[in-house]
TrEMBL record:
Keyword terms, alphabetized: 4Fe-4S, Electron transport, Iron, Iron-sulfur, Metal-binding, Repeat, Transport
PROSITE patterns with a match to the protein in the record: 4FE4S_FER_1 (PS00198), 4FE4S_FER_2 (PS51379)
Pfam families assigned to the protein according to its UniProt record, in alphabetical order: Fer4_8 (PF13183), LUD_dom (PF02589), LutB_C (PF11870)
Keyword Metal-binding in record: yes
NCBIfam families: LutB/LldF family L-lactate oxidation iron-sulfur protein (TIGR00273)
UniProt-recorded name of the protein: Iron-sulfur cluster-binding protein
Domain of life: Bacteria
Chain ranges of the 4Fe-4S ferredoxin-type domain: 308-338
The keyword Zinc is annotated on this UniProt entry: no
The species this protein was found in: Streptomyces thermoviolaceus subsp. thermoviolaceus
Length: 479
């Protein structure tokens, strides 16, 4: 069965385990520092860098204000170009649509490229249950799949692996799924890339069906765009007879002119390159050129929920560049798996709760997976204010009636609120706290479900008298 983020532990539990893995921390640190250094140099060479960020944020906000209009325009243009458009409200519906489309072709093995959304909805598992094998062809995604692993970064899913580990995976697993790795395969990057190329070439030449994602969709023409580094995406987009693209509804852009802004930003932020080696675009179908059948599956899966949040909706600007992860001190120490989602790091800490709502036990802790240092705000190419959204989401959990709260916590907070609204009761409670402070140790652990408050906190010393008492005694105040 394909591995998915199901029944994953909450961030505090997963992070505690991850931070003890010295090899993981070394791998993540090396990779993130390399990418962010390259990004910094390329951003500095553009005098209009901040203007590009402003423009990108403005375009995305325009799309989000009129998302329904642009999606209807996109749908009409895709159909005019010979494509078929499907709408999926959630993961279950999207998986059902894609599985049905593949089954209609009679194929039992397909190739995939560039789609975090299919990881989000668990498409591989759904296809596997239907007897369909889906093989990843993006190199990093293929490493994750061959290693029966999970992605840890939005741009480099296998970032947590070093090349020696990748060599061992290739030697052990490639032969089980097709062409085996060459004998005596070393860990030189060129050797590893050549082994992957030979392994995947057989699959490209046999595949009749491909599933892709898209970085952008152009409403003006119904065109989809994929940005990549290897060329495997282009093989998936041109060789199969049927192409199924599964894309989140927020990926739409109004015009080709808008695309120019994002192509200048994406590669610099994602991989530290001025331009991605491969930028592929396709519009519907053309006789004698590429797939004969094209399906576009537009997926919501919580995006309209995020859109309804006036503070959180800015997370839908995200272009999945990974810059926020590469700069984040928390991600650097925990890696991506601790977040329990295909979207880790700062973007995962805000996007996952927005997509799933405040009552999801696995995502409720993610807004606290941040030091609030604001480094992610400074590097985001679409100017997402991560810290604003994190604080809003923390408030939703802490001050709302989220079901993830323990009943004892809810009762205690309501009781405290009632006391604070009643002046005589509050004054009496403050005086009692002063007397209790003399006997309560600062390293005390609270009992039962309240222990969470003291596991990571030291109770401050409680003064013997309140400020009001001190003021009345020393200054003769009347309050």
């Amino acid at each position: 069965m394909s591995k998915v983020f199901l029944d994953w532990p909450t961030f505090p539990t997963a992070a505690e385990r991850a931070t003890k893995d010295e090899q993981l921390r070394a791998n993540v640190r090396r990779a993130t520092h390399t990418i962010r250094a390259k990004r910094g140099a390329l951003a500095a060479e553009r005098p209009d860098w901040q203007d590009l960020r402003d423009s990108a944020a403005a375009v995305k906000d325009e799309v989000l204000r009129h998302l329904d209009t642009y999606l209807e325009q996109l749908e009409a243009k895709v159909r005019e170009a010979g494509g078929v458009v499907h709408w999926a409200q959630d993961a279950e519906e999207a998986n059902r649509i894609v599985t049905g489309l593949v089954q209609e072709t009679g194929e039992t093995e397909i190739v995939k490229v560039k789609s975090m959304l299919t990881e989000e909805i668990g498409l591989d598992s759904a296809l596997e249950k239907a007897g369909i094998s889906a093989r990843e062809t993006d190199l990093a995604a293929a490493i994750v799949q061959l290693g029966d692993d999970l992605p840890s970064h939005v741009v480099v899913p296998a970032l947590h692996r070093n090349r020696t580990e990748i060599r061992d995976i290739f030697r052990r697993e490639m032969g089980k799924h097709g062409r085996p790795a060459p004998e005596n395969l070393g860990d030189d990057p060129e050797e590893l890339a050549e082994a992957a190329r030979l392994h995947m070439r057989d699959k490209f030449l046999r595949a009749k069906v491909a599933v892709s994602g898209a970085n952008f969709m152009i409403a003006e023409t119904g065109t989809l765009v994929i940005v990549e580094s290897e060329g495997n995406g282009r093989m998936c987009l041109t060789l199969p007879e049927t192409l199924i693209s599964v894309v989140g509804i927020e990926k739409v852009l109004p015009t080709w002119r808008d695309l120019e802004i994002f192509l200048q930003l994406l590669a610099r932020n994602a991989t530290g390159e001025r331009m991605a080696p491969y930028t592929s675009s396709w519009t519907g179908t053309t006789d004698g050129d590429g797939p004969r059948t094209f399906h576009l599956v537009l997926v919501d899966n919580g995006r309209t929920r995020a859109l309804a949040d006036p503070v959180g909706r800015q997370a839908l600007r995200c272009i999945r560049c990974g810059a926020c992860m590469n700069i984040c001190p928390v991600y650097e120490r925990t890696g991506g798996h601790a977040y329990g989602s295909v979207y880790p790091g700062p973007i995962g800490a805000i996007l996952n709760p927005l997509l799933k709502g405040p009552d999801d036990p696995q995502t409720a802790s993610l807004p606290y997976a941040s030091s609030l240092c604001g480094a992610c705000n400074e590097v985001c190419p679409v100017r997402i204010r991560f810290t604003d959204v994190l604080l809003k989401l923390r408030s939703d959990v802490a001050e709302g009636d989220a079901e993830v709260k323990h009943p004892a916590e809810k009762a205690a907070l309501k009781a405290v609120a009632g006391v604070m609204r009643h002046n005589p009761l509050w004054n009496a409670a403050v005086k009692s706290a002063g007397r209790a402070g003399a006997v309560l140790p600062s390293d005390m652990n609270l009992p039962g479900p309240l222990h969470g408050w003291t596991d990571s906190r030291t109770i401050p010393e409680i003064p013997a008298q309140s400020f009001r008492t001190w003021w009345k005694r020393t200054e003769g105040g009347t309050r």
